[in-house]
Sequence to fold (612 residues):
Amino acid sequence: MLTSHLSDTRYSSIADAKRTQLNISQLNVSIGQKPVLRDINVQFQSGAVTALLGPNGAGKSTLLKALCQEISTPRQCIQLGHSQLADWPRSDLAKSLAVLPQHASLTFPFSVTEVVAMGLYPLTLSKKEGDILVDQKLAEVGLTHLTKRSYPTLSGGEKQRVQLARVLTQLSQSPFPPILLLDEPTSALDLAQQHRVLELAKHLAHQQAYTVIVVLHDLNQAARYSDQLIVLKQGEIVSQGAPTEALSVDIIREVWDYEPVYIPAPQGGHPLIF
Amino acid sequence: MQLSRWLWPGLISLLGLSCLLSVSTGPVSISLIDALSAVVNWATQQNIGNIAPHEQLVINNVRLPRTLLALAVGAILAQCGAVMQGLFRNPLADPGIIGVSSGAALGAAICIVLLPNTNPLMIPISAFVAGLITTLVVYRLASSPTGTSVVLLLLSGVAIAALAGAGIGVLTYLANDMALRDLTLWQMGSIAGAQWIYVSLCLATLVFISWRFHQDARALNALLLGEAEARHLGINVDRLKLRLILLCALGVGVSVAATGIIGFIGLVVPHLVRMILGPDHRQLLPISALLGATLLALADIGARAFLPPAELPVGLVTALLGAPFFIFLLLQQRSKLT
Fold:
């Protein structure tokens, strides 16, 4: 339903765009004396969804924060395109890398359109062009009927779609396939909405060559919607690869300390775990 | 938008009207027409409309500076209130309520009492420095990763106002009679006895902060989404916050040095404007400036008209109007606060 209007022809050949966008090598992060990420080596491909999994405190959110420069990292550890992430000018980076917030509350009664228009901040557009872009992104996420509504009065799912439209607006002038980070995007949503947002993330990766990196708790959702899984435990990568490879009974037992019921690939090629 | 089309001309005419009213009101009664001619005379250095010399003198030396000071301070305070509410992501932030005005007042009082013969510009400078320190302290006390806590914000305001009040109290014991009278009147906020030097200083400050605030209006909108979100949009949030805090401290410091503590303009005006136009700072700030200027000019007329020929400090008038509004806001937010 959300994905039907989406069309984008900026990146003429998706296959050309499919290459490593973000490269993390030998990343170590400590908060105070405590190491929270240890020797992380990952490559994120454009055109793929990568899910970050792991129990609470495993370092998933820290890794995401390192990617959006929310915490400082050693300069040479993260590379975006041809240069170090830390060397990117703030305003250029904002055009190509965006974060969908977990819960974005707003005290002041901005309208839906005004919130989406905040995504125009890093762009250089005339007022008219900006208005057209905002309308287009509102239509893409299926919110045209809510444009005049005040943001604080929306439901959790509607708020998230507004934020998504804002983030897509922000990324709309990226000179190369953009990077979208999602921090537990399903936490405030009901079942149908959870699948809808993940479906959209997958669509953006597969059809528009986005590099999508998403923190998830639900192993089944991760297995179903992602192309690459990264399983973290105590700041270290325990397992990574395609869903069928990276999640095994042994890994789940080791990482979550839980004895799962694991049904290999009943449908659609991904395992069912509960 | 329909509303904003007549809002600008409407507010500007209202502003003009209150100016004229303000120039014509007082112990020497001058008609509106004469007041208008006198203002034109002052501006063009001519003599039209047969204004008596003493009336022209009253207007040039008393009423005009007073009116202009009310306009400038009203516009400054309204904008600083709007910006502080955005910066603190908290609709109850106001320079008076969170203690910044009191802090600035203490700074100015120290200067008045302890350095009686200093350059008159030292008073606004020390008010600015003290206001800046107060803003930073309140911000540190009340901020948390998700914004600022209303309760902590108001309580730090109470604590700082008490502290500054005590400081000013101690200073009153050290002050001579002249300084004492100044100090008392000035703690209640008064535009009477406006001097041209302060009028120019306030107008210059108004132009400067309005220009800088306007440049940051879009960033301030984005800041309301949250600091992390603003950062992801490419905004240097730490620099933005520091810049806005400095500008607010400057605005409040200069206003307090010129007129004493005038409360609630910074609270009431942005709220009214948000109710009509929504919270977009690109419109909120200039419209708040216009409405703030008009409101303080009207309050000053009220202060003069209440018990003529005596007059009330204008801070009392704004408090009488603003405090009930504040209580109304508290009631509205009660479910969120407890």
Notes: The two ends of chain A are 28 Å apart (CA to CA). The interface with chain B takes residues 68-70, 90-95, 97-99, 101, 104-111, 114-115, 118-119, 121-122, 170 of chain A (CB under 8 Å).
